[in-house]
Amino acid sequence: MMWATSVPNLVLLACACVRSTMLHGSETWAPTASDLQWLRINDRAMIRWICGAKLADKISTAVLHQKLDLDEITAVLRTRRLRWYGRVQRATSCINAITRLELPGTRDRGRPRKTWSACVRNDMTICNLDGVNPLDRNSWRTSVRRCQVRCCLPRSPGQPQHLKYQNRI
Hints:
- This protein is an all-alpha fold.
- The chain is built from eight helices and no strands.
- It has helices at residues 7-22, 33-51, 61-68, 73-90, 95-99, 116-126, 137-147, 161-164.
- The longest helix has 19 residues, at 33-51.
């Protein structure tokens, strides 16, 4: 199939199939460091395969991300989680009450497990969204988009996508 061998088609296919599958339901995860490392390893292997770059070529992943106009997978995960957080905060159903529910009893000894709300607080700090009200949909969306680095879209809206990838790495 000739259509699948061009770099733009491979990037679109990777975003539509591989990345979306890897990040399915990620809005509700509280990923551990090993989960994030697993995502990065798989994503970087896919990007190197698309570019035809080997580890021996000593091309950094940042350069490959820039050439393909893709974002780091952890940044994509962060923006998805922040969008979901805004949606949960604006919800009128029981989901809001459930997220604020205090569980009775005491917890076990040791460090507590990483929670989804702790991940969201960390994401809000990283993206400097502490002063933005998630109940105001327009300002929240604008702020998250400002924080978000677009995934799988051309950087310049007027430029056709097939012109961006004429030179293979």
